[in-house]
Amino acid sequence: MPVPGSLKRRPIDDANIAELLSSQFKLPKEETLAYLKLLDTHDLTVSQLSEVLSMTNEHASELATRMITRGLIIEGTGSPRRLAPLHPRMVLTNLFKVYEQELIQTLRDRRTTVDRVVNMLIPIYEDRETSIIASRKS
Fold this sequence. Notes:
- The protein is mainly alpha-helical.
- It folds into two domains: 9-86, Winged helix-like DNA-binding domain superfamily/Winged helix DNA-binding domain (Arc Repressor Mutant, subunit A); 87-138.
- Helix content is 69%, strand content 7%.
- The chain contains five helices and three strands; from the N terminus they run H-H-E-H-H-E-E-H.
- The protein has helices at residues 14-25, 29-40, 46-52, 57-70, 88-137; strands at 44-45, 73-75, 82-85.
- Strands 1-3-2 form a three-stranded antiparallel β-sheet.
- A hairpin with a 6-residue loop joins strand 2 and strand 3.
- Helix 2 (29-40) crosses helix 4 (57-70).
- The chain is elongated, with a radius of gyration of 26 Å.
C-alpha cells in the first residue's frame, strides 16, 4: 500500500472507470461520469452540473438526488445548494457494501429455494423407495 501523500495524480480513462463500476457494482455510467466530473472540479451547483454534463437542470437535479442516495456525493449547506463528491475510498466502500448485501441476500434466497425443492422432492423419492421395496416382496 502506498504511503499517504505519495500517490501522484495520473490521467484516468473516465469511460473505462464508468464501464468497470457499471459491470462490477451496477453503478449507472451517468452517475460515475458525474462523480468523476465533481472530483475534477470544485463543488458545483445543480445548474453548473447541468451545464458541465450538457443536460437539463431537472435531469441534473434527479441525477444529484440519486447520487446522494447512493452515497457518491453530499449536499452542502447554503444557497444555492452545492454538490460535493465523497472521498473515493468512502464511495467504493459504500458500493462494495451494497454489492455484498445483495450477494448475501441472493445466496440466502437460493438456499431457501434449495431447501423448498428438497422438501418437495423427498416424499416422491421416499414413495419410490417404498414402492420398490413393496414390489420386491411380491
